[in-house]
Write a structure and sequence with these properties.
Number of helices: 34
Distance between the termini: 70 Å
Number of strands: 8
Structural class: mainly alpha
Largest sheet: 4 strands, mixed
Strand content: 5-15%
Helix content: 55-70%
Low-confidence stretches: 160-245, 247-260, 450-490
Length: 743
């Protein structure tokens, strides 16, 4: 299947490029937090504790850690789409797995800026995908279950009248032909004894041959006259009460809907509720605000799903609570200390004024989005919406030639994106929102009546075992009636509610990151694809599968276009990834990455000069550049309190002041400084250093200087060594006591 092959190519290329390039700002922060997560007592995210064991397992190989994160994200996307196609859409197993493999490539939207090192963003997206998978699985099978082979074989042995009404069929000679009736067996089992007068003797039909010899009843059961009620009641051995009761239970289990598929569905539904709790816990470890908003969304979603066992919602809450308590004990030793970690981080952010700059309008990113990116983004979105509408119309009218033209147009868009860029690497605006616009065009085209309610004769001649029975799952077509193809706008309410919840998940992904949602939400555009797959009104059968497969191919091509553009112009890196051929480790003794030549030279100079200047690994380091934590990581130093502080914002100095006051004097007096007199952004103020008793620049000696080619510009980085740590310690203690006395 071409979409599956395309996904395999995508995963292979993604794994290969995971070993190339590094961003000197964000990825340095992630590396610090993953390497030593216990250095940061007040943190609003705990992703480092989950990725640190794998980082150590891989020998601190960044390429392997990146590939592991990408594969786990792709696996969670596969689980999500498999649940949507199999449970909600009711597609056959092979088709569901094939389409899920193809659609899982939509997770490429996360890498449109090419920051592949795992972080709170990747963990947050992983948790949301696991939660969405649980939401789909928890619905159970919304379609008619496939027939049980054992049940079918048993029913074929029954007479037609017995299958229809449960009454015994009359023999040509006037006798009653023995038959098995589910209703009669239920009555028999409830009363505790068989009513031998109400139905013929079942002894010869069900008893083994040795029982027949023991009772002396010759001949087949159809050749013997029917037994009367008096004879049966007078002879308990003939009725064989224990055997009849056991047989009733056995065949009732065979005939009732509680077959293997039903049992599997019940277990999958329970697993879905557990996955909701596990995904919520992962979101909490990544971004607590996202976890809180996700809990509210799940509660709202469970209301229309009340017909599908929402009573198991406490199971999700219990699993999330148990995991959070286990995390609290393992990380901080107690839930109280665990809560103090987050309350301290919140207090630091509030005191620094970080919340004041992000109102509702700023959080949405509308104040400058349309001014900076609006014309091109809107034009691309309108074009993709029209392309999707034409594709939906052509696909439903069997316009295969036009569908091929549209696929070729998307391939052209893929090539065009390689040559063009959307304002400084904002590929997600074209790729993420483009996927949403494309699918909206296809959906509306199908929903406006493009799908005929009746299928063609070749497709409607028989009802598939997996075909959804939308209005009444327990109904069946009458005899002699040609069933009509079911159309998805008549899908059950829980399926529609689940699709609506998927639409909100990309915005929950960006919530809590202090970044505009218009920029962060497209990175989670795989949920747009999942919402489309759960609610697209395509016809059941081969034609509907072709429409769905074509839409998946469109999303794949658009996803690859954004991913290829990010490889051509990676975020804050000097050139394309395929030109990064210089192999160098980020830290001394660590596995190598493929870097640009100037990146490799810069990191090599930092490692060599740090060793020559007497800076052993693990030396405390205060990064005052606000932009280059990767340089601090390459030197072998350790940052405490916070792995990275970004400069240039109104709240930057306030955040630096709050965090430095939490730095113990034993560490602050020995800490080196990373300083730049020619920064890219507005530098930090030196006033917070004086408030904790550190004199700058009098108390430091210049250790070494390096110049970086960060983001295409030069930046001089100074590594400064403290002159007298003992004097700095006394000054820090005095300043700390003075602050305590003033409070």
């Amino acid at each position: 299947m071409p979409p599956v092959a395309l996904s395999a190519v995508f995963l292979a290329l993604l794994a290969y490029f995971c070993g190339a390039g590094i961003d000197f700002s964000d990825e340095g922060y992630y590396l610090f937090y993953i390497t030593n997560p216990r250095d940061y007592a007040y943190a609003s995210t705990l992703f480092g504790y989950l990725y640190a064991p794998f980082f150590r397992l891989f020998g601190e190989d960044m390429a392997l850690l990146r590939a592991f994160s990408a594969l786990t994200l792709a696996a969670s996307a596969f689980l999500l789409f498999a649940a949507v196609f199999r449970v909600i859409r009711g597609l056959p197993l092979k088709a569901s797995l094939a389409l899920a493999t193809a659609a899982s490539a939509s997770c490429a939207s996360f890498y449109t800026l090419w920051i592949p090192t795992p972080s709170y963003n990747s963990l947050n997206l992983l948790g949301l995908a696991v939660t969405a998978s649980g939401m789909a699985l928890s619905l159970g099978r919304l379609t008619a279950p496939p027939p049980d082979p054992e049940e079918e074989r048993f029913r074929k042995k029954l007479p037609e009248t017995a299958r229809a009404s449960g009454e015994p069929e009359q023999e040509p000679g006037g006798g009653a032909k023995p038959a098995l009736s589910l209703a009669a067996l239920n009555v028999q089992d409830q009363q505790g004894k068989p009513d031998c007068g109400a139905r013929p003797d079942r002894r010869a039909a069900q008893r083994p041959r040795d029982s027949e010899k023991r009772s002396g009843s010759p001949g087949p059961p159809s050749s013997r006259p029917a037994a009367t009620a008096r004879e049966n009641q007078a002879s308990p051995d003939d009725c064989n009460l224990p055997e009849a009761s056991t047989t009733a239970r056995r065949f009732r289990k065979t005939l009732t809907p509680r077959s293997f598929s039903e049992t599997w569905t019940a277990r999958a539904s329970m697993a879905g509720w557990l996955l909701i709790g596990i995904g919520g816990w992962a979101c909490f470890m990544a971004k607590p605000p996202t976890a809180a908003s996700l809990a509210a969304l799940v509660l709202l979603w469970a209301i229309p799903a009340k017909g599908y066992r929402p009573g198991r919602l406490p199971l999700s809450a219990a699993s999330a609570l148990v995991l959070c308590l286990a995390s609290a004990v393992c990380i901080d030793g107690s839930p109280a200390a665990f809560a103090a970690r987050f309350s301290g981080a919140f207090a630091d952010a509030e005191s620094s004024g970080a919340f004041s700059e992000y109102g509702l309008f700023a959080a949405l990113g509308l104040e400058n989005a349309f001014r900076a990116y609006g014309p091109r983004a809107l034009a691309a979105g309108a074009a993709l919406f029209a392309l999707g509408a034409v594709f939906g119309r052509a696909a439903t009218t069997e316009g295969q030639g036009l569908c091929r033209i549209i696929l070729a147009a998307c391939a052209g868009l893929f090539v065009l994106t390689l040559a063009c860029d959307l304002d400084g690497g904002r590929h997600s605006l074209l790729q993420g929102w483009g996927v949403a616009a494309l699918l909206a065009g296809v959906w509306l085209s199908l929903a406006r009546g493009a799908v005929a309610p009746a299928a063609a004769a070749g497709e409607a001649g028989a009802v598939s075992a997996d075909a959804p029975l939308r209005d009444n799952p327990g109904s069946a077509p009458e005899a002699g009636q040609i069933p009509k193809a079911s159309v998805s706008p008549q899908s059950p309410r829980p399926a529609r509610a689940t699709a609506a919840a998927f639409v909100f998940l990309p915005f929950l992904y960006g919530f809590g990151s202090n970044n505009p949602l218009i920029y962060t939400a497209p990175a989670a555009s795989l949920f747009f694809v999942a919402a489309f797959a759960a609610s697209a009104p395509f016809r059941e059968g081969p034609s509907g599968l072709r429409i769905l497969a074509g839409a998946v191919i469109l999303c794949q091509l658009l996803s690859f276009s954004g991913l290829a553009a990010s490889w051509a112009r990676p975020y804050r890196q000097p050139g394309p990834l395929w030109n990064m051929t210089a192999k160098a480790p980020i830290r001394e003794g660590r596995p190598e990455l493929r870097l640009a030549p100037n990146q490799a030279r810069f990191l090599g100079a930092v490692r060599v000069l740090a060793a020559k200047s007497g800076m052993p690994p693990g030396t405390p380091l205060i990064d005052m550049t606000g932009r280059s934590p990767t340089a601090a990581y390459a030197s072998g130093g350790r940052t405490f309190v916070s792995p990275f502080l970004v400069a240039g914002y109104g709240w930057s100095d306030g955040a630096l002041r709050s965090l430095l006051r939490r730095l113990p004097c034993e560490i602050a007096s020995k800490a080196w400084l990373l300083w730049s007199d020619r920064p890219i952004v507005v530098p930090f103020s030196v006033a917070p250093l004086a408030e904790i008793g550190l004199s700058f620049p009098e108390g430091y000696n210049g250790a070494f200087l390096v110049t970086s080619g960060f983001a295409g510009t030069g930046q001089d980085l100074y590594f400064l060594k403290p002159k007298d740590p003992e004097a700095a310690y006394r000054a820090c203690r005095s300043a700390s006591e003075a602050r305590a006395a003033g409070q």
